[in-house]
Write a structure and sequence with these properties.
- The chain is mainly α.
- It has one domain.
- 79% of the residues lie in helices and 0% in strands.
- The longest helix has 33 residues.
Length: 129
């Protein structure tokens, strides 16, 4: 299925709506949940300590690995889900480009689909960081 998507073998409608909109919504939901759960582990009392799991982990890498436990597991799961999301976004963009190149309708829809999908991916990246 992902190979067909990457090769642009699905129609522009299916690529945009099913894989683009619904797929990105699913990944945003999952990465947002893992991000928020790791933030709750970092700030258990609700004290604001930054909104970035990645920046916190990099700046406190030694204490994260020494303390280990749930925090290390949560950060690991968040990084794994985020990596899968980035790979999916790449496959999706590649498939959309190929699918819109073979689209027989008006060029307007092909250009709009590319533009909107790029915006969706950029907004979705916010849930990773």
């Amino acid at each position: 299925m992902l190979k067909k998507l990457a090769n642009g073998e699905y129609s522009l409608k299916i690529t945009f709506w099913i894989f683009g909109v619904l797929g990105l919504f699913f990944f945003c939901l999952i990465t947002n949940m893992t991000h928020n759960s790791v933030l709750r582990m970092i700030c258990p009392r609700g004290i604001i300590c930054g909104k970035s799991v990645i920046l916190y982990t990099l700046s406190n890498i030694i204490s994260v690995f020494l303390n280990g436990g749930y925090l290390l597991t949560g950060v690991g799961i968040h990084f794994l889900i985020s990596t899968i999301f980035v790979v999916y976004a790449y496959i999706l963009l590649r498939g959309l480009w190929k699918s819109s190149a073979s689209y027989d309708g008006r060029a307007f829809w092909s250009v709009c689909a590319k533009f909107v999908l790029i915006l969706l991916i950029l907004v979705s990246l916010k849930s990773i960081i």
